[in-house]
Design brief:
Helices cover about 30% and strands about 25% of the residues. The mean pLDDT is about 90.
């Protein structure tokens, strides 16, 4: 029997829907095609153990799984649940009627519990665009995905809950987040405040002008003068994020896996302060599987470079173009991704 389930792959800050076709026929074996990486290939063993520990089984037949489109590389362990549901539906252990109406993502533990995934928000946005009924994912990511309106989001703790949901035995609890209420209620939740700084009128005036115009700043002064303290409090006098900016910032942090557990929308301007030993790739983004760097994580916020002369020259050189263009393009042989990088640069150094 052939069954189609759906997941999502993230490229840059956008997602592509992945169709997972599962066919069970005569013979013996397990074949996974469609350009999966080693983490996806290893899913066979995780799925077998998790289903067995929940009194279900992977049938001893020829199982062929195709992940389409086949030219996009499938990376990470988030397809475990997508593949597991496909195998159960194709072997008629669960009712397959509703399976294709949902995007299903999640990493499986051997006991069947679900581990959080990266990029839940871009996948949810794409699911809404393509008209899917809902999104089933680990409970820890549910609030993040529920920011997207008009999409039913179900958070599950383990694979058994998902199986019971499709069999109509037990409903999953829908996660509902009122995005506007969430955004406005947490707009001023901050531990630091620019008002904490006493004296230092000249530098405070300079930082207020910089904040008003979005200018870059360099602070020069002896150790202990308060350079770092002032820089950390700078985001609190920047204009509050708009809802569109908050969504854009949350998307980047979601792709990078920097969202906390059960968190939804980032409502405060980010403040990133990388150590001076940082590499070029960690700062601007990249790697074999391109990830956003510190300049993209500081998008719509402040990037603080403490002890500026200690940074490697190459690291400072690669920031030249993103500072001008407010976007960084990472090109590889097989793909090119673009990350936004509109940040305010604040640097400090000793005289």
């Amino acid at each position: 029997m052939l069954v189609k389930t759906f997941g999502g792959a993230v490229s840059g800050v956008n997602a592509t829907t992945i169709t997972v076709e599962t066919n069970i026929g005569q013979g013996v074996g397990f074949v996974l095609v469609g350009l999966p990486d080693s983490a996806v290939k290893e899913s066979q063993h995780r799925i077998q153990a998790s289903l067995k520990n929940n009194n279900y089984r992977v049938p001893g037949k020829q199982i062929v799984i195709n992940m389409a489109p086949a030219d996009i590389r499938k990376e990470g362990s988030a397809y475990d649940l997508t593949i597991a549901v496909g195998i159960l539906a194709a072997s008629e252990q669960i009712v397959a009627d509703e399976v294709s109406k949902y995007i299903i993502m999640g990493e499986l533990s051997l006991d069947g519990s679900l581990q959080p995934i990266k990029g839940a928000l871009p996948i949810a946005i794409q699911a809404k665009k393509e008209g899917f009924k809902g999104f089933i994912l680990p409970k820890e990511n549910a609030r993040e995905a529920a920011i997207v309106g008009e999409l039913i989001v179900y958070g599950a703790d383990n694979v058994k809950e998902v199986i019971e949901f499709f069999n109509g035995e037990k409903p999953l609890e829908q996660t509902i987040v009122n995005t506007r209420d969430e955004f406005y209620s947490r707009l001023n939740e901050t531990d630091l405040d620019f008002a904490d700084v006493k004296g230092q009128e000249n530098i405070k005036r300079a930082l207020e002008i910089a904040a008003a115009g979005g200018h870059n700043v360099i602070l020069i002064g002896p150790p202990g003068a308060g350079k770092t303290m002032l820089a950390k409090r700078l985001p609190t006098i920047l204009p509050p994020l708009s809802l569109a900016e908050a969504l854009e910032t949350t998307k980047i942090h979601s792709v990078a896996g920097k969202m906390g557990k059960h968190s939804s929308l980032i409502t405060l301007r980010p403040f990133r302060s990388p150590h001076h030993t940082i590499s070029d790739v960690a700062l601007v983004g990249g790697g074999g599987n391109p990830q956003p760097g510190e300049i993209s994580l500081a998008h719509n916020g402040v990037l603080f470079l403490d002890e500026l002369p200690e940074f490697k020259r190459t690291v400072l050189e690669v920031m030249r173009q993103p500072l001008e263009d407010r976007v960084v393009t990472i090109s590889r042989a097989k793909q090119s991704v673009e990350y936004p990088a509109s940040f305010m640069l604040v640097a400090s150094m000793n005289p």
